[in-house]
Structures are given as structure tokens and as C-alpha cells.
Design a protein that fits this description.
about 250 residues
Length: about 250
């Protein structure tokens, strides 16, 4: 399989990729039992990484850093990667669950509030008959003790999972995946954040036209203003400003 090219966006090496390539790459990892994690990253993840070099390094060590937001897709295309398209966490979850029914992939759901991963498992199995979900776990909203963490690793490994979906939000989920690479027997971990709540039916997704036009952030901010207004009002203008400065200095976007 051809190696996926990456493009540097404020220090984060974003994979120039589309959904079909992402699915093929992940299936290849499962077949070869090659351990990797996937960071599904938009402007928020890039800006958090810009401010925190350790998080930037975690992203750059990932098997894939998929362009979760349209600004990263537009940047990739302007740099010549015309095939690049949005690989949005919730869409990736549905596409991979559907595809894995045919090849018997085993899934573990880690994250979400109490009861959410169980509800998500029920919804996904209703949507994709034959989907093999081998375990769920909602971790407490605090740091785990070493003993608790070891028990979780043992539980996930005992499930025989091929794919571990991690719904802890950025940057917590990226740090968790990086800390558990090599400790989990599952070859693939994917950090998909709000996909747990979306597909469990607990939160509404933006209309597709808003997703494709780069306005999903506005929809989410309006539906969760207390939690998200600071993130978007701080990160989005800074991202635009930094990219413009980069373009002025380098002569390219």
C-alpha cells in the first residue's frame, strides 16, 4: 500500500487523505496486526498542538492525522493534494463499522459518560446487523490510578478487539491513545470524541451543508455555547491569523 503523504499545518503533519484511503489503511493495519492510532483533527486539535509541543508530537507520531475539518481539507487541496477530503470522526466511525461487518472486525467502545458507550453499541448494532462489538467502558471523569489503568488494559485485551474507539475529546483522547500504544493488543485506536454522543442520539449533528461549507463549528457553538464558545472564539481567529502570517512569510499557504 502506498504511503500516505502528509502536509505541515502549523507544525501538525496532517494526512492528505480521503475516506476510502483511510478505510483501506486501517484495514491493512488490522490484517498485519500493526499497532497504530488515528488522530481525527480539525482546527481545534491543530491549535491545541500549536500551544503544546507534547501534544503536537503525539499527533505527529500517529499512524494517521485525518483532516476532520474543512479548513484542513482546503489547505491540503491548495497545496496540490486534490484527492484530499474530509475524514470526519463520526463519518469514519459509521464507514468503518459498516465495512468491518464483511471482514469480521471486533470493536471496543471506550469513553463517554456513564451509559453512553452501551447506548452507542445498541444503536450501531441496530444500524449495522452483524456488527461485532466486544466490549464497552465509560471511564471516570478523573485521572485513573495505575491499578485502574492496568485493569482497563487487561479488560480490553481480553475482549479480543481489533479496533478501539476512544471518545474522550481532544486532547485527552490523543494522550490516552499515545500512552496505550503497545500496551493494547488491538492494532488500531481511533479518537473520535463527540461521535459517541452523536451516534448514541444524545447530540445533534450539523446539517451536511454546514459540515461541507466549514460552518459546523458555528452550529456546535450554538448548540453548546457554555462549553464551546471559548474554544471557537479563541482558536478560529488565531488559526486564520497564523496561517496568513505563514503565507506572507513563505509566499505559499
Amino acid at each position: 500500500m502506498n504511503k500516505i503523504t502528509r502536509t505541515d499545518v502549523l507544525g501538525v503533519n496532517v494526512s492528505a487523505i480521503n475516506m476510502d484511503q483511510a478505510l483501506a489503511t486501517i484495514k491493512g493495519w488490522v490484517d498485519r496486526r500493526a499497532a497504530h492510532y488515528v488522530c481525527v483533527t480539525g482546527v481545534h486539535g491543530v491549535m491545541e498542538s500549536h500551544d503544546d509541543p507534547s501534544l503536537r508530537d503525539i499527533h505527529n507520531a500517529a499512524g494517521l492525522v485525518t483532516p476532520d475539518g474543512m479548513p484542513l481539507v482546503w489547505i491540503s487541496r491548495m497545496r496540490g493534494f486534490k484527492h484530499a477530503d474530509r475524514v470526519y470522526g463520526p463519518d469514519l466511525m459509521l464507514a468503518l463499522c459498516e465495512a468491518s461487518v464483511n471482514w469480521g472486525g471486533r470493536h471496543f467502545l471506550y469513553g463517554g459518560a456513564e451509559g453512553v458507550p452501551e447506548l452507542l453499541a445498541k444503536k450501531l448494532k441496530e444500524r449495522f446487523p452483524g456488527l461485532n462489538i466486544v466490549g464497552t467502558y465509560s471511564p471516570p471523569f478523573r485521572a485513573l490510578t495505575p491499578q485502574e489503568d492496568e485493569e482497563i488494559v487487561t479488560m480490553i485485551n481480553a475482549s479480543g478487539a481489533d479496533i478501539v474507539w476512544v471518545g474522550l475529546s481532544t486532547p485527552k483522547q490523543e494522550r490516552w491513545m499515545h500512552a496505550h500504544i503497545g500496551r493494547l493488543a488491538a492494532p488500531v485506536m481511533l479518537g473520535v470524541g463527540a461521535a459517541f454522543d452523536f451516534h448514541a442520539g444524545l447530540k445533534k449533528q450539523a446539517p451536511r451543508w454546514m459540515q461541507r461549507s466549514g460552518l459546523e463549528w458555528f452550529f456546535r457553538m450554538c448548540t453548546e455555547p457554555k462549553r464551546l464558545w471559548r474554544r471557537y472564539m479563541r482558536n478560529n481567529p488565531r488559526f486564520v491569523g497564523l496561517m496568513l502570517r505563514h503565507a506572507l512569510v513563505s509566499g505559499t499557504i
